[in-house]
Every structure is written in structure tokens, then in C-alpha cells.
Specification:
By secondary structure, the protein is mainly beta.
């Protein structure tokens, strides 16, 4: 038996790290012949059926640039809108949109200028069918990676106050912000949050939390080429953005600002994104910041997704947690994370990943933690892969700088850009949180004898094994280590014909365990289905 399994290990070890391809429905929210990139998304504060998305849009024939305005009134199932915001002055739309929805349904759109420097705002009271003229938030030149949010907490003293943040593109490059109490019809004069910063800032990601608190994070850049993100700065306001408590260097980072040679030299960054736990659970108020880093533990020698958390309102921060669960230093690349904490306190992060494909390609993976970022389960949510490349008509090597994730009730909504259709477009997937990590069982008779690849794979203790049998049979499913030693029996009995899911928790006593769970080390294992109709064996990998 041991010799047989060693032979199996030799032939399958190269596939041991494969993760099951996602089976989620993917769709373009607004199919067109205009390039779309950098999606952002907002959900109505009290009516989750209403959603407002935007993107950078580029007509690659004429070079015309704008912001797409896309609206759904049925929870993201269908979308309508335009690839061009019609708010005057139409020639001054420079992209980099931020979006928000007020409680009365007013849509707020911010963007940078094209012909004239600055940050501008428009609003719509008819779900984007028409837009106001531009309102100037600042006429100073911004860096192009700011963000916009709104206080959607009805218990907040600043309920419905909209905020936008950006970095001033003039030395010493501080983070600035402005807010609106009039549904985007007017904005306060821009205010410096951290002037003077210890290093040039980049980003400016803003979010609201509990009891009216507002949070901003940004990257402090190294002063030598390639100007990587050297540390993360953080600020909090407890009086609606009027005053700020600033930590110029909250924690060290080592970002990936530059290009990815294996992906046609697209520009990438390691800019931080944040979110706050607004649930009523034990981690309410936790703040999470995610970055892409390299060559700084726990990141390895290739780009990894790294999470830091604060449980004391940003005063102190945890050490980094590596979110992607593939083997460290395996040459695989993860980048452009987007983070969202759902209403149940689950921490969700999506990102591009190439662990399952060639180095010139990518797909979208969702990592989810239900224990505050301590451990993660990963799911492939894109049902196709694509080859990243620079966008025609964009700046040098530009592919866009971020993707987006949000939730409503028990559903996650992921948005990203890829060129699978032949042109960069905004793609989306809707994920039922209650089914994550659980594969749906078929309700009709199975058509073939099957043992599916475990899901997820690699896994951190818990994984799902799906099998189906054509006739009633005595069934066993056993797990073996690389030496062919049985470590657990998961199924042992008479089973009716059908399709079944079996969960194995490598840290518990599930199944008839022959060895203590403390003895299970990270590595490759094999699971074997045996029935009267035959035997199938597959590899899987446990990561502690």
C-alpha cells in the first residue's frame, strides 16, 4: 500500500497545489465597445436593491475619457446607464471616479479633471438619467487614486455626510479631504489631514465607521526609484472630518509599486485599502487594512496580500497576516486587493491571482475570514481567466489601479476589470455568503461515478470533498499521508445513489481518526473513494 501511494505521490505532486476552478456566474454589468476599468460600487443605505457603480472609461478610437455610470434597481441582476457621465463640462471628465448614494436616492459621483486640474463632483436625483453641472471640490492637481464614501449609519450624528479624500500632487504631497452635507451639491474647502508628511503620500482611502467616526489610510513612499510603498499612514476623525488624529507611520510595508514583467509590464501598486467591522459581533469596531507587499515578512519573494488589524481604534496594529494561502515563495503573484467587512463581521478580500494558471494570466480569488483575519478560506469566483496587458489610450502600462467588493444582506458583490471579451470591461459576480465553502448537491440522479477535487485546495484545516455514486453501494473515503499511512476515515457505510458533500476539518476529530490532529503537519495528503463500482484517488494540500 505504501509503495502504491508513493507512486501516486510522484505522479501527482505537481498538481497538488491546484485549487478548484470557480463555478460562479460572471457577467459584464454594461457590455459595450468602450474600455472600462477601475470599478467602484455603492449600495443604497436602506434599499439594497439599488446600486450605483462607476468606472474609468476610454474610447480607444477617439481617446475620449470619462466615467461610466451604471445603476441597478434589482440587487445587481440587471444594470442600465452609460459609459459617459453627461454632467457638464463633459470634456473635463478625467476618470478616477468615487461613488456614493444618499438615503433619498441621490447619486453622488466624484472624479478628477481632464482639461482643468482638480477634483469635481456631480449629483443625480433620477438614478443617473441626468446629472448636475460639475461642482469644484478643489482646483489643485490631485494624484489619481482618491476615494469617496458616505456615512450610512442612521445612528451617527453625521448621517448622510459624504466624504472624499485624495493626495495633493504638489510637494510635500499631503493627504487632503472634503465633505458634503448637501448630497454632493456643495463641498467644504479642502483640508489637509497630515501636512507635512514625513514622505510623499499616495492613495487616500476613506471609510466611515461607528458613531460617526471617519478613517483614512495612505501609503508613504520611498524617495528612490521605484518609489515603493514604504509604510502605511492612518488618521481618524471623531467630529465628522473637522479634526483628525494622525499616525504618520502606522506600520511598515514593502509595496509593489512598479510593473509586472510576466504580465506585459502592467503598472501595479501596493496602496492600502481599509474597512471597519460595523456588525454587532465581538469584533465590532475592528479596523482592517490590506496591502500588496513583497520581501517583507509575512510576504514572500513574490507579491502577497497582507492584512493588518487594529482593535483599539487605530492606536496599535497587529503584525501582518498573509491572506493568500498558496505556498510562500512559489513564484505566484497576487495583486490589487479590495476589502469589505460584511454585516455579519466576515472579512472578505478579492484579488487577482495566477497560482492556478500561467504567469502571464490571472483570475479572481475571494478570501474570507470569520475570525477577524486569523485564518482564511479561499474561493475562485471568476469562471474564466485572462491575460493582463496595458490599455490602449491609457497612460504608459496602465491597466487600472483597483477593483471593488461590497455586500448587501447575505450576498457579496465583486467587481473587477479584465479583457476576456477582447476589451477591458467591468465584470461582476454575486456570491451567496451562506454557501461559501459548501458545494451545492445535485437533486437529480448522477450521471457518472465521480470524486471531485476537494474545495478549497490548498486549505487551512477545513475542506469539502464532493463525490457521487450511480448505485447504492458500500462506500469508504479515507485520507492518507505521503507514506500511504491512513490518517482518517471520513465515510464508512452503505450509501444510496446520489451526490454528497463531506467536510474534513483537519484540526478536529471528525471522522474515525487514526492519528492525533496534532500530528498532521502541513503538506500533501491523498483522499480515496472506494465503492463497489471502483476506486478514485486525488491529492490535496493542508496548510497550517
Amino acid at each position: 500500500m505504501r509503495i502504491i501511494y508513493l507512486l501516486i505521490a510522484t505522479s501527482l505532486i505537481c498538481n497538488c497545489y491546484a485549487q478548484e476552478k470557480g463555478t460562479y456566474i460572471n457577467f459584464r454589468i454594461f457590455p459595450s465597445d468602450i474600455t472600462q476599468t477601475e470599478p467602484v460600487i455603492a449600495v443604497h443605505p436602506t434599499n439594497p436593491l439599488i446600486m450605483f457603480a462607476s468606472s474609468v472609461t476610454i474610447n480607444t478610437t477617439t481617446g475620449f475619457k470619462s466615467e461610466g455610470v451604471y445603476v441597478s434597481t434589482n440587487g445587481g441582476s440587471n444594470w442600465f446607464g452609460s459609459d459617459t457621465c453627461k454632467g457638464s463640462y463633459i470634456g473635463n471628465h478625467g476618470g478616477d471616479p468615487g461613488v456614493a448614494i444618499n438615503n433619498d436616492g441621490t447619486l453622488i459621483l466624484t472624479h478628477i479633471g481632464s482639461l482643468f486640474p482638480g477634483v469635481y463632483s456631480h449629483y443625480s436625483t433620477n438614478l443617473g438619467l441626468s446629472w448636475s453641472n460639475a461642482i469644484t471640490i478643489t482646483s489643485q492637481q490631485p494624484e489619481d487614486k482618491g476615494s469617496t464614501t458616505i456615512d450610512a449609519d442612521s445612528n451617527s450624528p453625521y448621517y448622510e455626510r459624504a466624504y472624499t479624500a485624495w493626495v495633493n500632487f504638489t510637494s510635500p504631497y499631503p493627504v487632503l479631504c472634503s465633505y458634503s452635507t448637501t448630497s454632493g451639491q456643495s463641498w467644504t474647502p479642502s483640508q489637509s489631514i497630515n501636512n507635512p508628511p514625513p514622505a510623499r503620500c499616495s492613495g487616500g482611502y476613506i471609510k466611515t465607521g461607528i458613531n460617526g467616526k471617519v478613517y483614512v489610510c495612505w501609503a508613504g513612499k520611498a524617495n528612490t526609484f521605484p518609489f515603493i510603498e514604504d509604510f502605511v499612514g492612518f488618521a481618524v476623525s471623531t467630529n465628522g472630518g473637522v479634526d483628525w488624529s494622525v499616525t504618520q507611520n502606522a506600520f511598515d510595508a514593502n509595496g509593489i509599486n512598479g510593473t509586472l514583467p510576466t504580465k506585459n509590464n502592467i503598472l501595479v501598486n501596493g496602496l492600502p485599502h481599509l474597512d471597519i467591522d460595523r456588525s454587532n459581533g465581538s469584533r465590532r469596531g475592528n479596523i482592517y487594512i490590506v496591502t500588496t507587499e513583497i520581501n517583507l515578512s509575512p510576504a514572500g519573494s513574490d507579491p502577497d496580500i497582507i492584512l493588518h488589524r487594529s482593535t483599539d481604534n487605530g492606536i496599535t496594529w497587529s503584525s501582518g497576516v498573509r491572506v493568500n494561502q498558496d505556498l510562500q515563495n512559489n513564484g505566484k503573484i497576487q495583486y490589487f486587493p479590495s476589502i469589505h467587512v460584511d454585516s455579519g463581521g466576515g472579512v472578505n478580500i478579492i484579488y487577482y491571482d495566477d497560482r492556478n494558471t500561467t504567469s502571464d494570466s490571472a483570475e479572481i480569488i475571494l478570501a474570507r475570514s470569520e475570525n477577524g483575519g486569523v485564518s482564511w478560506t479561499e474561493t475562485v469566483i471568476s469562471n474564466h481567466r485572462f491575460q493582463p496587458k496595458p490599455i490602449v489610450g491609457g497612460s504608459s502600462n496602465y491597466q487600472g489601479d483597483h477593483i471593488s467588493l461590497t455586500s448587501a444582506g447575505k450576498k457579496l458583490y465583486a467587481f473587477w476589470m479584465d479583457n476576456y471579451s477582447g476589451l477591458y470591461q467591468i465584470w461582476a459576480s454575486v456570491i451567496d455568503i451562506t454557501t461559501l465553502g459548501v458545494r451545492e448537491t445535485e437533486q437529480y440522479p448522477p450521471e457518472k461515478f465521480l470524486l471531485a477535487q476537494n474545495y478549497p485546495n490548498p486549505f487551512n484545516f477545513s475542506t469539502i470533498i464532493t463525490y457521487q455514486i450511480l448505485t447504492d453501494s458500500y462506500v469508504t473515503i479515507k485520507v492518507y499521508n505521503l507514506l500511504g499511512v491512513e490518517v482518517v476515515t471520513l465515510v464508512d457505510g452503505l450509501i444510496k445513489a446520489g451526490r454528497y458533500d463531506v467536510q474534513w476539518n483537519g484540526s478536529s476529530a471528525s471522522g474515525r481518526r487514526l492519528h492525533s490532529s496534532n500530528g498532521l503537519s502541513s503538506g500533501c495528503y491523498f483522499y480515496r473513494l472506494t465503492t463497489s463500482g471502483g476506486t478514485i484517488t486525488k491529492p490535496m494540500i493542508l496548510l497550517k
